[in-house]
């Protein structure tokens, strides 16, 4: 909010004008790259860095419109409020998961990608998912019921955790069985460490979900660990690799559990799907 208070003054007159002509403004900006894809000032900073903002500031109309649109988005955007998040059960296989029909959103990634921290950040509960200094502690399918409306599902990680061949095979069967057989599953959030170049283990998992027609989104984690420019560079590199085999890229989110970056965007995405399911 400090960022808004500091910069909104520069676009005050524009904001007052556009609040009166809101519909016209939104129609005008609908197809504009900056306005359509950056709904907050912070996202703009994260994408381009402060140097670009300084440059844009010289053009008062451009920067004023950006500020105004950001202001309108924050005033009218409905963000899901998580009032209740509770652990339900841990299951060793899909057939032992909850029997009701609530939609389920699964989170999975390499075993050191920061999955538990992300889940705790999304739910505003630091103790909901257990975090550990030792990667790969999640060994079951963990269900957390959110607002008594949908399930957040914490799946075992894959990758670096030290496991025997028998244990790896068992975990693969558990993960594959849940993702391919669970009727209540509506989306998988695949977590990727934004600090790293595209990893084969992640790319293989993405290709497998695509070939299996599994709806999924990519969530880049740990964005606070490197500069905003490096984040953008690494995400673009990932998109380039995926574009070699994908005609249309899946939804992409950039997050930081420490700074709660990306929380509203992910929850908004889940809320939209839930509304569509309800018809």
Please name the CATH architecture of the largest domain.
3-Layer(aba) Sandwich
- CATH class division of the largest domain: Alpha Beta
The total strand number stands at 7
- Shape verdict: globular
- Total count of helical runs of at least 4 residues: 12
Distance between the termini: 35 Å
CATH topology term of the largest domain = Rossmann fold
Helix content: 40-55%
The major β-sheet equals:
7 strands, mixed
Proportion of β residues? 15-25%
Please state the structural category: alpha/beta
Pick out the low-confidence regions: 1-12, 17-42, 44-63, 71-76
Characterize the structure shown.
The longest helix has 17 residues, at 60-76. The protein has helices spanning 2-7, 12-20, 22-29, 33-37, 41-48, 50-57, 60-76, 115-123, 165-181, 200-211, 228-243, 263-278, and strands spanning 85-91, 104-109, 141-146, 150-154, 185-193, 216-221, 252-254. Helix 10 (200-211) links the parallel strand 5 and strand 6 (216-221). The protein has twelve helices and seven strands. The chain is globular and about 45 Å long. The chain has a seven-stranded mixed sheet with strand order 1-3-4-2-5-6-7, sandwiched between helices. It has two domains: 2-76, no CATH class; 85-278, P-loop containing nucleotide triphosphate hydrolases (Rossmann fold, 3-Layer(aba) Sandwich), CATH 3.40.50.300. By secondary structure, it is an alpha/beta fold. The two termini are 35 Å apart.
